[in-house]
């Protein structure tokens, strides 16, 4: 029979590194988020804009001004104000937005799914086209397809998204009528689908409302394609350069000499080795889109988190800005952790 | 297998993507508007003080007296109050509440609701409350001064005998909206008289009720089934937040919206040849002006100010980058207001400007900083001033900031020249006279940041008295004359260079009739619109 003490003794050392790694990650996450909040909070407080006026407007009386000043807790030292804010956040209270009059959590629950949906679809498009294009460009280096990939990348880098968005809207909505106009949903379809996730495509699919799904898709496809194009430009360029590096490596020559098919050489060997770098690139591109693309959101009247934070910042609505910062900060941290996990999955050495 | 799946997926995506929008135009009983509505903070009439919020409020809440959208010039008309009487001492106004008005909740409108709503507006003490408290109504005295003596009689007792037109004009503003007491109190939290609930819900007796408001996204309004008046043709109104003018224009051309409310001059011009679309101009109440801080030595010289007023290219600006958006106007009351002065004594005249400057204490002018917010039209105006004032020999620098930054500096009296806009708070001449031409105590301690005259450190005890005399003058003709005289004096002596009055250009479907944005005095009225 097994000796119980020995057994426990064996488990101990294998359990401890896992625990300490998790703890370290948690502490890092907490410190990162706290630091981020601290900086954002201080920027909000030192900005040359009066937060009281942002609430009450320029016509208010001095008495109303003073009352609001106290209500916002601005009479307390900055660090105390920050302490109060953090303790509220820990209790799930992000405060009220002065711009919308609603709880910041309610606002974010409304605007973030819109961005998440758009960014996810955009990234999917970017990956689905960008990765094969990059690989092809590397394999057929110098060929016409490489030139096309380069041109696509160049246009993606140099065209202002604002302009491209307007032209896209003019062409596909205004002239051709292939897609629906700005906004997330046509006026006839609003209020039909009871929200579950807040992402219209997902909700409509879950509820089986396919006409709403069609309309939502018709609205999202153009802005998503636009964002997808910009990530595509980045992803294909990076994929191409990663692949070129691999293709000139000795193991590839060895594989070819061994008589492996070109397909196996490219996808089975070279591509396998760039997966990890690619994950980083895609994760970054995704995180970038999740921040919200302000200009795209403005042109397509897409009520996402990018324009929410920007408009809030200009109106000195700091609760909303801080709330948005927490969400975006958490996403960056989350995506980092996720890509860490994926590394381990794809790269045996990282285990 | 794999190939088949991909082909099927591509075909599915194509079929969805290529599908044209189902409807080419909006339904006949529905009005779809594109507008910038990100300024709405609240729907509570006791608190709402923003343009888009007031637009909603006007269509949801009735007031004791109100403007007829099809005859704005007629001034206030009976609405919830069918008649009113003023006491001999001029301090007590007795309103008789009309019968038959019903809130969207189903409760009838009584004098008690009016008492509750007006008291509530004073007690909440939100930004617009000054519109009522300026009549001596305070948190301490509302029980006596705002009183429903029975279900159909409301008595207002003021601290002084004000001009009746002044009081009634004020009651037409958003804060005069009458809410359903029962519904508000059912939703009261911590003694807020329903404030939190009414921020996102509406319960008025007007033609519409708000079904849903998504901040920065849309406002959806349906008919109030209990509305006492004729049933409006537009049974549903959707206002979508569309920031971009070009986007609004595209939607209008496609027939996806009926009205586009924020078209740039370029897009208005672009619509000229588009069939099925028209553009309707309307004069609004907003003024564009520059003002000089009298704390600065250079700015305090009246001859320098005169020179600057002559060295401003009013017509040049209104005929070029402001074309269709602003018209030249030089008095502090916007046209269509009682007593608005049409005279324009200043035109671009470099000789007159140079002559005035030569007579001043600063014949070589000097450095001038223009404080301006980073909005296109204001930047354009500031650059024009920089150019023409520069020709006078002034060394003009633009200090550009966000709206809030620029305003902070203005309120702290730190600017040289402030370039800004002012819109009336309520449709009575005192709304502008009371800020452009009142500043009895110019000391820093007075802190009268609400007064534009104080912000420019322009101490005017005498003119303040004249302005205050006009608010208690009950003979309307005399009152009008008093404002005309005040504006003439103001044009000559004040450090304010009033330049333009706003024109709103709304693009709409050719069949849309009776779209009235509200003129200079009120807001949009959806219930009279047909298409």
TrEMBL record, chain A:
CDD domains: TM_PBP2. It comes from the Bacteria. The keyword Repressor does not apply. Residues 112-343 form the ABC transmembrane type-1 domain. It holds the Pfam family BPD_transp_1. Gene3D superfamilies: MetI-like. It is a multi-pass membrane protein. It is found in: Cell membrane. The chain crosses the membrane at residues 21-43, 118-139, 151-176, 216-235, 278-302, 322-343. One of its GO terms (cellular component) is plasma membrane. Its main location: membrane. Keywords: Cell membrane, Membrane, Transmembrane, Transmembrane helix, Transport. One of its GO terms (molecular function) is dipeptide transmembrane transporter activity. The keyword Transmembrane applies. PANTHER family: D,D-DIPEPTIDE TRANSPORT SYSTEM PERMEASE PROTEIN DDPB-RELATED, DIPEPTIDE TRANSPORT SYSTEM PERMEASE PROTEIN DPPB-RELATED. Belongs to the binding-protein-dependent transport system permease family. This is Peptide/nickel transport system permease protein. It comes from Primorskyibacter flagellatus.
Automatic annotation (TrEMBL), chain B:
Residues 1-24 form the signal peptide. One of its GO terms (biological process) is peptide transport. Its main location: periplasm. Keywords: Signal, Transport. The keyword rRNA-binding does not apply. One of its GO terms (cellular component) is ATP-binding cassette (ABC) transporter complex. One of its GO terms (molecular function) is peptide transmembrane transporter activity. InterPro entries: Peptide/Ni-bd, SBP_5, SBP_5_dom. Residues 76-441 form the Solute-binding protein family domain. It is found in: Periplasm. The keyword Transport applies. SUPFAM superfamilies: Periplasmic binding protein-like II. Belongs to the bacterial solute-binding protein 5 family. This is Peptide/nickel transport system substrate-binding protein. It comes from Primorskyibacter flagellatus.
């Amino acid at each position: 029979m097994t000796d119980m003490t020995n057994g426990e003794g064996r488990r101990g050392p294998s359990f401890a590194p896992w625990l300490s790694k998790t703890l370290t990650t948690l502490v890092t996450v907490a410190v990162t988020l706290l630091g981020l909040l601290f900086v954002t909070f201080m920027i909000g407080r030192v900005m040359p804009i009066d937060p009281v006026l942002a609430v009450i407007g320029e016509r208010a009386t001095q008495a109303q001004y003073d009352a609001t000043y106290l209500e916002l807790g601005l009479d307390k030292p900055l660090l105390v104000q920050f302490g109060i804010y953090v303790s509220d956040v820990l209790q799930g209270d992000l405060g009220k937005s002065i711009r919308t009059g609603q709880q910041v959590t309610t606002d974010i629950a409304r605007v973030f799914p819109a961005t998440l949906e758009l960014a996810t679809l955009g990234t999917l498009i970017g990956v689905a086209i960008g990765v094969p294009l990059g690989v092809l460009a590397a394999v057929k280096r110098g060929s016409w397809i490489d030139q096309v990939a380069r041109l696509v990348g160049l246009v993606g880098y140099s065209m202002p998204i604002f302009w491209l968005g307007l032209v896209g809207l003019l062409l596909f909505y205004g002239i051709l009528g292939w897609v629906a106009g700005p906004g997330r949903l046509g006026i006839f379809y609003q209020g039909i689908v009871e929200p579950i996730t807040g992402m219209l495509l997902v909700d409509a699919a879950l509820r089986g409302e396919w006409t709403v799904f069609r309309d939502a898709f018709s609205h999202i496809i153009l802005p998503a394609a636009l964002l997808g194009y910009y990530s595509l430009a980045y992803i294909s360029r990076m994929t191409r350069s990663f692949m070129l590096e691999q293709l000139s490596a000795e193991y590839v020559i060895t594989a070819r000499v061994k008589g492996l098919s070109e397909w196996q050489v490219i996808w089975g060997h070279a591509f396998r080795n760039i997966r990890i770098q690619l994950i980083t690139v895609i994760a970054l591109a995704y995180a970038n889109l999740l921040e919200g693309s302000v200009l795209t959101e403005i042109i397509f009247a897409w009520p996402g988190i990018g324009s929410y934070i920007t408009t809030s910042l200009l109106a000195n609505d700091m609760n909303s800005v801080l709330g948005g910062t927490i969400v975006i900060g958490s996403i960056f941290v989350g995506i980092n952790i996720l890509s860490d996990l994926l590394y381990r999955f794809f790269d045996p050495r990282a285990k | 297998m794999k190939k088949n799946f991909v082909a099927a997926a591509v075909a599915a995506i194509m079929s969805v993507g290529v599908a044209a929008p189902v409807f080419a135009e909006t339904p006949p009983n529905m009005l779809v508007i594109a507008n910038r509505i990100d300024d709405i903070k609240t729907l509570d009439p006791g608190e709402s003080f923003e343009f888009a919020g007031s637009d909603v409020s006007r269509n949801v809440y009735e007031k004791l007296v109100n403007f007829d959208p099809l005859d704005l010039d007629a001034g206030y008309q009976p609405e919830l109050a069918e008649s009113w009487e003023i006491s001999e001492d001029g301090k007590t106004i007795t309103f008789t509440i009309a019968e038959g008005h019903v809130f969207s909740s189903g409760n009838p409108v009584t004098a008690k609701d009016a008492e509750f709503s007006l008291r509530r507006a004073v007690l909440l003490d939100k930004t617009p409350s000054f519109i009522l408290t300026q009549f001596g109504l305070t948190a301490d005295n509302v029980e006596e001064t705002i009183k429903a003596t029975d279900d159909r009689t409301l008595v207002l007792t003021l601290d002084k005998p004000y001009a009746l037109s002044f009081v009634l004009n004020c009651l037409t503003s958003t804060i005069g909206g009458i809410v359903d007491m029962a519904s508000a109190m059912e939703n009261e939290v911590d003694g807020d008289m329903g404030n939190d609930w009414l921020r996102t819900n509406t319960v008025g007796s007007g033609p519409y009720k708000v079904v849903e408001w998504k901040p920065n996204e849309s406002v959806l309004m349906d008919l109030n089934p209990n509305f006492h008046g004729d049933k409006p043709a537009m049974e549903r109104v959707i206002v979508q937040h569309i920031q971009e003018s070009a986007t609004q224009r595209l939607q209008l051309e496609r027939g996806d919206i009926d009205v586009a409310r924020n078209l740039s001059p370029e897009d208005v011009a672009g619509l000229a040849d588009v069939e099925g679309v028209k553009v309707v101009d309307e004069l609004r109440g907003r003024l564009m002006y520059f003002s000089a801080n009298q704390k600065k030595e250079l700015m305090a010289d009246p001859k320098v100010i005169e020179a600057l007023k002559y060295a401003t290219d009013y017509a040049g600006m209104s005929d070029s980058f402001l074309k269709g958006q602003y018209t030249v106007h030089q008095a502090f009351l916007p046209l269509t207001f009682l007593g608005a002065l049409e005279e324009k004594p200043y035109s671009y005249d470099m000789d007159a400007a140079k002559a005035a400057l030569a007579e001043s204490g600063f014949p070589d002018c000097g450095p001038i900083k223009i404080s301006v917010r980073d909005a296109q039209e204001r930047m354009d105006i500031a650059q024009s001033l920089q150019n023409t004032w520069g020709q006078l020999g002034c060394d003009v620098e633009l200090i550009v900031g966000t709206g809030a930054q620029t305003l902070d500096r203005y309120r702290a009296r730190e600017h040289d020249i402030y370039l800004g806009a002012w819109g009336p708070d309520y449709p009575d001449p005192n709304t502008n006279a009371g800020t452009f031409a009142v500043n009895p105590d110019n000391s820093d301690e007075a802190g009268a940041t609400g007064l534009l005259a104080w912000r420019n450190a322009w101490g005017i005890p005498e003119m303040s008295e004249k302005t205050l005399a006009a608010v208690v003058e009950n003979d309307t003709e005399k009152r009008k004359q008093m404002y005309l005289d005040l504006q003439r004096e103001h044009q000559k002596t004040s450090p304010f260079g009033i330049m333009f009055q706003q024109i709103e250009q709304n693009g709409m479907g050719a069949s849309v009739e009776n779209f009235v944005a509200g003129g200079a005095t009120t807001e949009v009225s959806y219930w009279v619109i047909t298409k």
